[in-house]
Design goal:
CATH superfamily: Acetylglutamate kinase-like
Structural class: alpha/beta
Distance between the termini: 46 Å
Number of strands: 14
CATH class: Alpha Beta
Length: 294
């Protein structure tokens, strides 16, 4: 009987959060270990299905970099990166689209639907959901010390999101699952960083929250402890002193862009923890780092 009562208390504890987020939209960037380990895939899809059942809308944007690289190698093509960006020629773009829009996207859709959700897979090309332009970066040549522009090929950055197709799906109870592929000015297909796509989508649908799943406990201070709450105004100092660096930089940038565009709260959450979404959304303490617009 005590165990049954404890379960009831857990549900009652979640009631204020369910009431607060009912009918609102959460955008979730899904990647890392949560996307590769079977038990974490199951817990993620269960979380999404549950949120849908209790009236909390979700939009998922997924990555798939490791599977793209593995597929490229199987096909005899060596992945190349510059400053963390995949150099994407036409052949590589075909592989990216096949893996993201086919293998990865449909696996996520299938898992959510297995648990009773109504997920629908989309590419950013569907309904011209994601408009983009080619992205260029600058790299200093060691021999000369001169900065030069690097052509990354078919790598893009978001210029606009048209949420019409998302609005239509959500009104009918469907869960959009988006692969981060956009359409360029000439109709060309462009590969885009999933964190930035999730940020742009969150802004376009006026999401209550943007949640990025990662393979770390959250944003860590210089002593290695998790920073549970961070104000946007504190970020520049943490970047300058090296607290925010490496792979955490684009995630924090994605969060700040979303906040600038009206998203209420953003979160960087440890996707290696089973049911991390429920723990973040339905508990006062939460897990990981929340970044606020202040």
């Amino acid at each position: 009987m005590e165990e049954i009562i404890r379960k009831a208390e857990v549900l009652i504890d979640a009631l204020p959060y369910i009431r607060n987020f009912y009918g609102k939209t959460l955008v979730i960037k899904y990647g890392g270990a949560a996307q590769t380990k079977d038990e974490l895939k199951e817990s993620f899809s269960q979380d999404i299905a549950m949120l849908n059942f209790i009236g909390i809308r979700t939009v998922i944007v997924h990555g798939g970099g490791p599977k793209i690289s593995a597929t490229m190698e199987k096909m005899g093509k060596q992945p190349e990166f510059v400053q963390g960006q995949r150099i994407t020629d036409k052949e590589t773009m075909d592989i990216v689209e096949m893996v993201l829009g086919g293998l990865v996207n449909k696996e996520i859709v299938s898992l959510i639907n297995k648990h009773g959700g109504k997920a629908v897979g989309l590419s950013g090309k569907d309904g011209t959901l994601i408009r983009a332009q080619k992205k260029t970066i600058k790299k200093v040549t060691p021999e000369t010390g001169v900065s030069e522009i690097v052509d990354l090929g078919l790598v893009g950055e978001v210029t606009a999101i048209d949420p019409a197709i998302l609005d239509s799906l959500e009104k009918n109870g469907f869960i959009p699952v988006i692969s981060p592929i956009g359409v360029g000015p000439q109709g060309e297909t462009l590969n885009i960083n999933a964190d930035y796509v999730a940020s742009a989508v969150a802004a376009a649908v006026k999401a209550e929250k943007l949640i990025l799943l990662t393979d770390v406990a959250g944003l860590l201070d210089r002593g290695g402890a998790v920073i549970s709450t961070l104000k946007k105004g504190q970020i520049s100092r943490l970047v300058k002193n090296g607290t925010i660096r490496g792979g955490m930089l684009p995630k924090v940038q994605a969060c700040t862009r979303a906040l600038d565009e009206g998203v209420n709260k953003t979160h960087i959450v440890d996707g290696r923890i089973p049911h991390c979404l429920l723990l973040e959304i339905f508990t006062k303490e939460g897990i990981g780092t929340e970044i606020l617009n202040a």
